[in-house]
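Students often ask why we bother encoding 3D structure as a string. The short answer is that it lets us treat folding as translation between two languages. Here is a chain of 170 residues written in the first language.
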Amino acid sequence: MPLPLLLYSTNTWLTWAIGQRYYRELHYCWCAPYFDGRLAPRHFQLPPSSSPAEIYSSLAGAVARGDRHSGIIERNKVGALRGALAKRKQGVITRRQQSEIGAIVADAVPNDFRPVLFVYPLEAYELWPMRYRPQSEPTRFRWSTSCQASQVGDLMSSNLGGPHDQVFQE
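And here it is in the second language, the structure alphabet:
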């Protein structure tokens, strides 16, 4: 099967802003080769929990309703706090910065969780440093063993918005 031309990832503005400020503009992303799993080829399984379109829609709906206790917002808060802990253990941030991130997440309002779509071209895949190349999602994290989402760790934001990479938000 040929490589896709693009990878898509939906994140929140809050996690993007935290990455910009605290993680040297690096962003940890789960990507999929199709934006909408419902429109992907039949042989390709992309469940709602891995579909950038469905994640985007869920986030946008929670934000529009001002739903502070939305499941998707709560999961994003937990992920942001886990990410801060991981970055502190890696020596990227200090305990104080981890506490600041905790306070930012605790004080966040629904609009802070508005969706941000990352679109990455794969035309120069061979030129990507190994640490930026998509890794198969570990089976234990997959919705099913045939789900084909990929993990892309630590993508540099400064590379986004260039002539090929794009970040979109409403």
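Translate back mentally: Residues 129-133, 136-154, 156-169 have pLDDT under 50 and may be disordered. Keep this in mind for the problem set.
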